[in-house]
Amino acid sequence: MKKPIKIKPFWYSDVWLFPKLVTVITTLDKQGRVNAAPYSHIMQYDVMHKKPRMILGFRQDSHTFENINATGEFVINCPPASHLDDVMETARFYPEGVNELEHTRFTPIPSTKVRPPSLKECPQIAECTVDEIIRLEKSSGIVIANIVAILVEEGLEEMGREERIRAMNLPIGLGDADRVDYFYGIMDNIVSYKLKEVPESYAATASMKTSLPWDDDAMAALMKIPPFVRKMVLGQVEKHARGKGADRVTHQHMTDLAAEFGMDEAVLARFGAKEKA
Ligand SMILES: Cc1cc2nc3c(=O)[nH]c(=O)nc-3n(C[C@H](O)[C@H](O)[C@H](O)COP(=O)(O)O)c2cc1C
Question: Going along 165-273, which residue ranges are E strands?
C-alpha cells in the first residue's frame, strides 16, 4: 500500500530520498578571499561536449551564491569519503570572509582556468563560469554553469569503471535530519548489471545483410550502434559508400555519414569509433 504525503519545504531531503553527489564548492569574494562549502544540488544540464554545463541550486543568501554572483566563477570539488569530516567542517556557518579550508585537511591548489582554488585531495574537479542565473522567488538561486575544465587525478582515466569507482571513493549524499544530522553512503558494495539486448534486436541484427565488404573497424563501429538502428545505418552507409564510387565500406564512410547527421567524431567515439588525435 502507498500513501500520499504532504509536500513540505525541503521535500527533497525530507521524506523523498534523493541520493546525491557531494561536492565542496570553492569561490572568491569581491575582495579575493576564499570561501568553501558543501553543495549537493547539482546535475548535468547540457550533456554534449560543445557547451558542457551543470545546473546547481543554492540558498540565495549563502556566501557561495553571493560570490558566484559577484565574480562569475567557481570550482566544484568532489571529495573522497575519507574527507567527510572536512566536508562537514566547511558546512558550518562561519562569518563572511572566513576561509573554511583553514579548518580542514583540504589543500588549496591553483585552478587552471578560473581564479578560485581547487582542492588537491579531490579526485574529480570541474572549473566553472556562470552561463545564467535564475532567482526563484522565495526559493533557490539556480546557476547554470559552463564547465570550462574538468580535471581528474592522474591514473583515473585509464582505469576500468569499477576500479575507478573504488579509487575515487566518492560518498553518496543521503540527505539530512533537521539540517543537523547529515547521512552518507560509502561505496563498499558496488554492483554492476549488464544491459541486455531485447530478443527482437538479436533477430534484427541476425537478419542484417551487407551488400559490400566492410573493413573490420567500420563493422566494429556499426556493432556499437544501438541494435534497433543498426540495420538502417548499415543501408545508409553502404549507399553513401557506393555514392562515393567505393567498392568496400571503410571507417571513413561511417565518419562522413555521421557528420552529415550532425554527429562529430567525439560523439562517434562514444559508440566505439576511433577519434582522431
Ligand atoms: C552534504 C551537504 C550538501 C549541501 N548541499 C547544499 C545545497 O545543495 N544547497 C544549499 O543551499 N546548501 C547546501 N548545504 C548547506 C550549505 O553547505 C551550508 O548552508 C553552508 O554553510 C553554506 O556556506 P556558504 O554560506 O559559505 O556558501 C549542504 C550541506 C551539506 C553538508
Answer: 172-177, 181-185
pLDDT tens-place string over residues 59-107? 999 999 999 999 999 999 999 999 999 999 999 988 888 888 999 999 9
Q: Domain of 253: which CATH number? A: 1.10.8.550
Q: Per the domain annotation, does 190 fall within a domain?
A: no
Closest CA to ligand 1's atom 14: 39
Q: What is the pTM of this model?
A: 0.85
Q: Specify whether the CB–CB gap between 115 and 71 falls below 8 A.
A: yes
255 lines ligand 1 (CB under 6 A): no
Given a cut of 90, whether residue 199 has pLDDT beyond it is no
**124 in a structural domain:** yes
**Ligand 1 atom at minimal distance to the Cα of residue 59:** 11
- Taking the centre of ligand 1 as the mean of its atom positions, its distance from the CA of residue 40, in whole angstroms, is 8
The three cell numbers locating residue 149: 575544465
Residues 161 and 34 in one domain: yes
In a shared domain, residues 37 and 173: yes
> Which range marks the domain in which residue 19 is found?
11-185
Q: How many CB atoms lie within 10 A of CB 145?
A: 25
Residue 1 within any structural domain of the chain:
no
Cβ atoms of 70 and 29 within 8 Å: the answer is yes
